[in-house]
Design brief:
Elements lengths: L1 E3 L8 H22 L6 E7 L5 H11 L5 E5 L5 H4 L5 H6 L6 E5 L4 H8 L5 H20 L3 E8 L2 H13 L9 H8 L1 H15 L6 E5 L3 H33 L24 H24 L4 E7 L5 H9 L7 E5 L5 H4 L5 H4 L8 E5 L8 H4 L5 H20 L3 E8 L2 H13 L9 H7 L2 H15 L6 E5 L3 H24 L1
Parallel strand pairs: 1-6, 2-4, 2-5, 3-4, 5-6, 7-9, 7-10, 8-9, 10-11
Helix pairs in contact: 1-10, 2-10, 5-6, 5-9, 11-20, 12-20
Length: 498
């Protein structure tokens, strides 16, 4: 699906001056309205070299309030960026709700260049485009407005534009050897670009193709398009709110299914002497394996979920006791901050993706969307139902980058949880761990159990399964966790050497 602006237009200077003044006023007005809206705007400016991308972006920066917009210019990835999944640097720069992010160089740049220079084939390009579509659909489902503009220039016009820029001492710096090289690849570039635009122009994120031979025309066209898209999106949002207020939220669906948690044998135990022996053995093993993983530049993400007082913190401490503190971080996840609430719920987790060889341990995680947010009504039904596939895609991006992912659910029964609550209340340095909310959550045990079962069933994959840990006995649970991580690292390192 394409939105195509008329081609071949030019705009006189006097007409441009009049229209740009009016457009600037309207953009600032709609931007003021946007500040109070619960969604961000992403503007992608891409296209042919010499097509006037820089001029269009300069005009947007001139017309919009810089307090609520940001231009993100991305070139070759840094070493830090190469050590993370490719979308990491884009997630870090996503605009907050109520603001605009203008991208110069986006997630389209590298796949197009790779294909033009024949570093990837058509099948690999299609894989890249499928991942881009997943990303944009995920953002659009969260109500992000994505505006994509492609500035086109015919080959003869590109030659003429580059000659003009090179001839003028004030602009010749803008014509690089890479631009001249790209000119020789123009036909290949256009062929790839047509495929990319065709595959990624969706109803929720269509491409606008703009003739770039006249900078005044292309600037006005893009500016007007941005204005209209934001207006339409705000209107749809307000209509949705009005309809929801009239009809009320749809009732939450609960999926009845086999209870995976009930199948666990919570009588499994380990005596203290056996625990000490095995803890020493596996901590020593983990120390060695984690150093090998660091040398091999293979990262790990460990996710800990479980009932309140299930022993997540204790299990995490036994892991970290045997690891170099310089190479891991523990991220305790609480209620999102104002900054985090202003972004997609996955944004704060993308920010902590580890560098090569490092380990990130999440004490609670992105699964809060399908657990506490679902049960407590913090997420709408459509949001948490959508989250299962969003989470699987998120984890697949980590796995594709070679990151080890382990997900632990620490399970205890209702009686054991109450007993632990009471013991914590009697210990001065543990009393802070118990709140009224912990007791309140016990009243919703059945609802949480249904949510946990559905989470496990829908987000366990062959490469990223859930490990269910029988945790009524803390010694048994801790050894099961550390042993499983050692086995996972061994398997990964063996595969590297074979």
């Amino acid at each position: 699906m394409f939105e195509v602006a008329e081609l071949g237009h030019t705009v006189e200077k006097s007409v441009y001056k009049e229209k740009s003044a009016q457009l600037r006023t309207e953009l600032l007005t709609i931007q003021h309205h946007l500040k109070s809206c619960p969604f961000p705007v992403i503007v992608i400016i891409s296209g042919v070299d010499g097509g006037g991308k820089g001029e269009v972006i300069n005009r947007l920066n001139e017309w919009l309030d810089p307090h609520y917009m940001r231009t993100i210019a991305l070139g070759e990835p840094s070493d830090e960026e190469r050590e993370r999944p490719k979308f990491w640097r884009y997630w870090r720069t996503l605009p907050a709700k109520g603001t605009i992010g203008v991208y110069v160089g986006s997630w389209y740049s590298d796949p197009i260049a790779q294909r033009v220079y024949q570093k990837i084939d058509d099948a690999a390009l299609q894989t890249e485009l499928n991942q881009i579509n997943q990303l944009e659909e995920l953002l659009a489902d969260d109500n992000t407005l994505i505006i994509k503009c492609w500035l086109h220039l015919k080959k003869d016009m590109q030659v003429k534009r580059l000659k003009q820029l090179a001839k003028n001492p004030a602009t010749n710096w803008r014509v690089t050897d890479k631009d001249r090289q790209h000119l020789g690849l123009y036909d290949d570039f256009i062929g790839v670009a047509e495929n990319v635009l065709s595959e990624t122009s969706k109803a929720y994120a269509p491409w606008l193709i703009v003739e770039g031979s006249d900078n005044r025309y292309s600037s006005l066209t893009v500016g007007q398009h941005v204005l209209e898209r934001i207006r339409q999106h705000i209107q749809r949002h307000e209509n949705t709110l009005a309809a929801a207020a009239e009809q009320g939220e749809a009732p939450k669906s609960q999926v009845e299914q086999y209870n995976l948690l009930d199948a666990l044998d919570l009588k499994l135990k380990l005596n203290k002497s056996g625990y000490k022996t095995q803890l020493e053995k596996y901590q020593g093993k983990l120390n060695e394996l984690s150093r090998h993983a660091l040398a091999a530049k293979r990262s790990s993400i460990l996710v800990f979920e479980g009932w309140d007082a299930a022993g997540k913190g204790g299990a995490i401490r036994r892991l970290t006791e045997s690891m170099d503190a310089r190479h891991y971080q523990v991220i305790p996840i609480a209620a999102p901050t104002d900054e985090e609430r202003a972004h997609h719920y996955l944004w704060r987790f993308w920010r902590h993706i580890p560098r090569a060889g490092q380990v990130t341990i999440y004490d609670r995680s992105w699964y809060g969307r399908v657990l506490v947010e679902r049960v407590e009504g913090m997420a709408k039904t459509g949001q948490w139902q959508r989250a299962y596939s969003e989470i699987v895609n998120f984890e697949e991006a980590m796995l594709a980058h070679g990151i080890v992912i382990m997900k632990f659910w620490l399970h205890i029964d209702h009686d054991e949880q109450l007993a632990r609550f009471k013991r914590r209340e009697e210990i001065s340095y543990k009393q802070f761990k118990i709140t009224e909310e912990d007791y309140r959550n016990r009243d919703k045990w059945d609802d949480y159990q249904k949510a946990v079962n559905e989470m496990i069933a829908r987000t366990s994959t062959s490469k990223s399964p859930w490990l269910l840990v029988e945790a009524n006995d803390k010694y048994y649970a801790r050894i099961k966790v550390i042993k499983a991580y050692c086995e996972c690292l061994e398997k990964m390192l063996d595969a590297l050497h074979n």
